[in-house]
Amino acid sequence: MIKWHSYLLSLLVLICSCSIQHEDEHKKVLFFGDSVRLIGMPDSTVLSNYLNLDNDYIYLFNNMVSMTLIMEPPAIYHCFILEHVGSEKQIYYLKMDDAIKYNWIPPYDSSSYDLGLDFISTELAGCILVSEWSGVPEYIKPDMPMLWSSKYEHIPSMRKHNEEYYRIISQCDDAKELSAYYNTSLFFKNNDIVSEESKIDLLCQLIKITQIQYVDYFFDLERDYNDIYPIIMGYSYNFDLNTYKVLNFNDFKQYICDFDEDLNGLARLYKYEHLSNDRRRLISKYLLDMSSNNMNYIVNNFNDLEKLFNTSTMMFYQKLAHQDIRIFFFNITYDENNKIAIEKNYYNKEYITTTRIRGYL
Question: Which of 16, 67, 194, 322 has the fewest C-beta atoms under 10 angstroms from its C-beta?
């Protein structure tokens, strides 16, 4: 009987050992002639695109870490983070798809009509514009501008009072994905050749890109590449688009007041553009209205924002076209094993200017 129990014990130890070994092992891929460990589970098509260098952008963060981006319409961002720290190499796969959840629109009868509109049919319709290439006047169809439905203009309010929206938002996990990468990263775990300042700098860069830039945008890869350039880079040469870390809340309040005045200037420019049909229009009434409502929400909640600034690890704001301000708070906590957990609070997500509609930056 003792011999039989010993046999069972040995078998159990062997099974556990195999199980632990299996969990510790990761798939290896051939990348630039090296067999490199891959952490994460990209589908075969995405992985093949990455290995064949078929991508949309590569971020070169430093001499040890880079990130390759592959975009999948309508709003999925596949990120492969390549690390080469000392003699070790590793590829970590992240799938960022919170934009789909944040952009959710409560269902209503005319939603398909609204989502079919674009800048040309709503703002440029009926205009006569001289072609920049041929110099020939071009008449923009349709004859009369198409109008948004009244419900589309009230999407922020519809979201705010819809329990389903907050249920969907509760499923957002991009911040958890970033936390999981941090906790298995060669770069962030290294204390010999990687400084704490370098770790903080990279974490801020990753937060800005994966947690802020990627959460708003739907995209269409058939359009001009300039359409997705601001999404990738976080700024554009044509518009003042960028992401800023808030270090002083009073400075932030002053920036908001300046942006509010700029919104008034854009409203005046909108009226000037519509005095005649023979000039190009750049200002969107829909985005102006959304940004104005968003700005009022921010100004009316300065006290709440200041409390969150004082109790959060980091605060960022993103400045988009038409003075559309996005606000994000992050809390970073460490457990007893020094592993981090990143929590994100997208403060004014209800006011997101829905990029499911094309032609609007």
Answer: 16
Task: Sort 272 into a burial class: Cβ within 10 Å, 0-12 / 13-18 / 19+.
Answer: exposed
Rounded Cα distance between 79 and 253, Å, is: 34
Q: Report the C-alpha gap between 97 and 99 in whole angstroms.
A: 5
Amino acid code (one letter) for 24: D
322: left (phi over 0), alpha (psi -120 to 50) or beta: left
Contacting residues for 79 by C-beta, under 8 A, at least 6 apart:
67, 68, 69, 93, 94, 95, 96, 210
Contact 212, 328 (CB under 8 A): yes
pLDDT in tens, 177-206: 999 999 999 999 999 999 999 999 999 999
Tell which residue, 68, 104, 61, has the closest CA to residue 85: 61
In three-state secondary structure terms, 191 is coil
Within 10 angstroms of residue 303's Cβ, the number of other Cβ atoms is: 8
CA pseudo-torsion sign 229, 185, 314, 195? negative
Instruction: Tell me the HSE value of 201 on the side-chain side, using a 13 A CA sphere.
Output: 9
Report CA 2 to chain centroid distance, whole Å.
Answer: 61
- Cα separation, 39 vs 181, in Å, equals 9
Nearest Cα residue to 160 out of 293, 46, 258, 69? 293
pLDDT per position as a tens digit, 199-213: 999 999 999 999 999
The structure tokens listed for 295 are: 């700005």
Q: Are 321 and 310 in contact (CB under 8 A)?
A: no
| Residue 277, CA distances (Å) to 119, 127, 137, 338 in order | 15, 5, 12, 62
Which residue, chain included where needed, has tokens 């920036």?
255
Q: Taking the CA atoms of 283, 285, 114 and 230 in sequence, report the sign of the dihedral they define.
A: positive
pTM of the model: 0.87
List phi, psi (to 5°) of 342: -105, 125
Q: In the numeric block, which tokens belong to residue 256?
A: 């908001």
Contact in structure between 246 and 275 (CB atoms under 8 Å): no
